[in-house]
Amino acid sequence: MKSPLRELKHPIAGLTLGCCIAASSVATEQRSPQTAPPTDARQELLNLENEWAAAEDKHDEAILRRVLDERFVGTFSSGKTYDKEAFIKAILAAKVNPNDSPQTLSYEAVIIDGDTAVLVGTDTRHGTRDGAAYTAVAKYTVTYLHRNGRWMALAEQLFNVPQAK
C-alpha cells in the first residue's frame, strides 16, 4: 500500500504535511489525570529531593516511606544495592552527627518526560569528625515515577567524589 505522502509531487509539501499530522496527533493525545504530572513538575521534584534529604538527616521514617516507591532500589559507592526496606533500615541505623550541616543539593540536570523524571545532582555535606572539619561530596542520579498524583523515587545511584589532596 502506498503512503499518502508518496503521492505528493513536492517533497517539502509532503514533509510539512507529515509533520502537521504527527504534531496534531501528539497534541490531541489524552493522558490519564491520574498519571499526568502537574505543570510545575520540576519544582515539585526539587522540593521532594530536599524533603528526602532532610528526612535522611532527621531519620524521618515516615517521609522516607512516602518518598520511596515500593520497588525502590539504590546502589552506592560501596557497590552494595539496597531495596526500600534495607535503605530505610540503613538510614535509621546511621549515627547522627550533631556537627554535620544539612545536605546541600545542587542540580546539573532535571529531565521530565511524561510520568518519568531523572535528576542528576551533587550532594554536599560539611561537618566535623573527631575535631577535624570535613566536606563530603557525592554525585547522584535519581529516577522518579509519577503515580497516583505524586512523584516517587524508583531508583538512585550515588557515588562519593574523592577529595582533592
Q: What distinguishing features does this structure have?
A:
165 residues; Nuclear Transport Factor 2, Chain: A; 6-stranded mixed β-sheet; globular; disordered N terminus
Architecture overview:
By secondary structure, the protein is an alpha+beta fold. The protein has one domain (34-160): Nuclear Transport Factor 2, Chain: A. The protein has helices at residues 11-27, 41-58, 61-67, 84-93; strands at 68-75, 81-83, 104-113, 116-129, 132-147, 150-160. Strands 2-1-6-5-4-3 form a six-stranded mixed sheet. A hairpin with a 2-residue loop joins strand 3 (104-113) and strand 4. Helix 2 packs antiparallel against helix 3 (61-67). The longest helix has 18 residues, at 41-58. The chain is globular and about 45 Å long.
Précis, in short:
The chain has 165 residues and is an alpha+beta fold. It is built from 4 helices and 6 strands, in the order αααββαββββ.
Structural class: alpha+beta
Mean pLDDT: 81
- Contiguous low-pLDDT stretches (5 residues minimum) are 1-35
What's the total number of strands? Answer: 6
Reported by name, the CATH topology is Nuclear Transport Factor 2, Chain: A
**Helical percentage:** 25-40%
**What's the number of structural domains?**
1
CATH C-level class: Alpha Beta
Give, in order, the helices and strands: HHHEEHEEEE
Strand content: 35-45%
Largest sheet: 6 strands, mixed
Calculate Rg over CA atoms.
22 Å
CATH architecture: Roll
Instruction: Kindly report how far apart the N and C termini lie.
Output: 68 Å
Widest sheet, order of strands: 2-1-6-5-4-3
Large-scale geometry:
globular
Please give the count of helices. 4
